[in-house]
Design brief:
This protein is of the alpha/beta class. The chain has 15 helices and twelve strands.
Length: 480
């Protein structure tokens, strides 16, 4: 497929601009470009065909099975988009007066109320633009809390080896030293190792729960109690909340702060660089440190933005976050209701366990008794015995019209594939996926050399990934 810069011809175009209805300002030469702006010269037909061709070459959840673990690639209900396209939400500006944006402010207030109820938190901010951004913000709350109390010796954050990779990165960005604690052979946090790690320098503990092995921490209350007794705070990575939503709440488990991924758990769009949303909720002891401003409902029933937060960590994003993502998430919550949200979690866990048990006699599944919303396959033995890697098996799935799961994560499982079927897939889809997984296993074990050539029926074959990583082509070079 040609780039759009390689199409068209000089002088061709499709711009039909209306007459300017504002005064024309002639800029001084120092503010103007010194070289011609290179843009494609294409007709409207060529432009339409180009993007239609791109669309046909992409793969999304609307095209087929997309079990990309830890990203929850599930169907996004179209009613969410319908609500986000309402003129009352799209035709406003964040600098308008509060009197003219009452509907938008009510959306944020209502979403905060419901999400606090779901998580067991007291207050929430929608400013963070993604999950990792939420981690950074939540850790800033923890840091502000200790600094306000003059407890400057607390400079360490404890992170299990089963956590999301962004957890230690976020802690380091905030300026904390990261202490890693191992997992037991059963896949849970090693409580004895955690006890040895805590001390007067412990600022907090970050836990992804359910963890990246797809397991709910069996000793969750003991874990949070250990941290609190040491004077630290507990941070809950809520990226996997769709396994427990409506069933268990982080706030009831002893957690002081949590981030959510609205673009995962609450079915808003995901991928392509955005839009994301990683709101942060917290208990009252941290509420004064939340990003400013906050939406407050007055006694007369109207809403306003409160900037009277002297202990706030300040803004973490312009204005109030990705507002239309919040609209979509609130639509999802209102559509499903209390029982519907619970049912979504139950289905997520049911689908993952069903698929895992269908595959455990074919693939090596290290933790196969039960799982939450996702499960792990290890191809370590297949790699040693047949030379077939997790990458080979993942590439084979492309030939069968399904997206591969996450590869080589979590890091503590060799040759890992993380499979997350999601709650929106039917039994028929799962059965077909199981059939394909088993067929691929049969193919690669009987003819290992065949595995290194996948995929064979896609737009491009197996790329030179090392070469692409070391010698990326990041810009288009025009012909002189």
């Amino acid at each position: 497929m040609k780039l759009i810069f390689e199409k068209g011809s000089t002088g061709r175009g499709c711009d039909l601009l209306p007459p300017s209805d504002v005064p024309v300002i002639n800029l001084e030469d120092k503010f103007k470009r010194q070289s011609k702006l290179n843009l494609p010269n294409v007709s409207e037909t060529e432009l339409s065909r180009h993007y239609t061709e791109l669309m046909k070459k992409t793969f999304g959840v609307n095209d087929g099975f997309y079990p990309l673990g830890s990203c929850t690639m599930k169907y996004n209900p179209k009613i969410n988009d319908d609500m986000a396209k309402l003129p009352g939400f799209t035709d406003i500006h964040p600098l308008q007066s509060e009197e003219t944006t009452q509907g938008a402010l009510e959306v944020m207030a209502l979403a905060e109320e419901y999400l606090c109820e779901i998580t067991g938190m007291d207050n929430m901010s929608f400013q963070p633009a993604a999950g990792a951004h939420g981690e950074f913000t939540g850790l800033q709350l923890i840091k502000a809390y200790h600094e306000k109390r003059g407890d400057s010796k607390r400079d360490k954050i404890i992170v299990p080896d089963s956590a999301h990779g962004t957890n230690p990165a976020s802690a380091a960005m905030v300026g904390y030293k990261v202490i890693n604690v191992p997992s037991t052979n059963e896949g849970y946090v090693d409580v004895d190792a955690l006890r040895d790690a805590v001390g007067e320098d412990t600022a907090g503990f970050m836990l992804t729960n359910p963890n990246t092995l797809g397991l709910f921490e069996a000793n969750i209350l003991e874990i949070t109690n250990i941290i609190h007794q040491a004077g630290g705070l507990n941070y809950y990575d809520g990226a996997n909340l769709n396994a427990i939503m409506g069933i268990a709440r982080p706030g009831d488990m002893g957690f002081d702060v949590v981030h959510l991924n609205l673009h995962k758990t609450f079915s808003t769009p995901h991928g392509g660089g955005g839009p994301g949303s990683g709101p942060v909720g917290c208990k009252l002891l941290l509420s004064d440190y939340l990003p400013s401003p906050r939406v407050i409902k007055g006694a007369e029933g109207s809403y306003h933005l409160s900037y009277d937060n002297p202990d706030s960590i300040g803004r973490v994003k312009a204005f109030y976050g990705n507002f239309l993502v919040v609209v979509r998430a609130l639509t999802y919550i209102l559509s499903l209701g209390k029982e519907g949200l619970k049912h979504a979690s139950i289905n997520a866990v049911l689908n993952a366990n069903y698929m895992m048990h269908q595959l455990k006699d074919t693939y090596h599944i290290p933790f196969s008794d039960h799982c939450m919303h996702e499960f792990i396959i290890s191809l370590e033995d297949l790699k040693k015995e047949k030379g077939v890697s997790a990458l080979d098996v993942a590439k084979a799935m492309l030939d069968y019209g399904m997206h591969p799961p996450t590869m080589y994560f979590p890091l503590n499982v060799p040759e890992a594939l993380m499979v997350e079927p999601t709650e929106t897939e039917s039994k028929e889809t799962l059965d077909e996926a199981v059939r394909v997984y088993k067929k691929i296993y049969e193919e690669v074990t009987s003819n290992p050399e065949l595995a290194h050539g996948y995929p064979r029926n896609t737009v491009i074959g197996r790329p030179d990934e090392v070469g692409a990583a070391r010698n990326p082509v990041l810009r288009y070079v025009y012909n002189k």
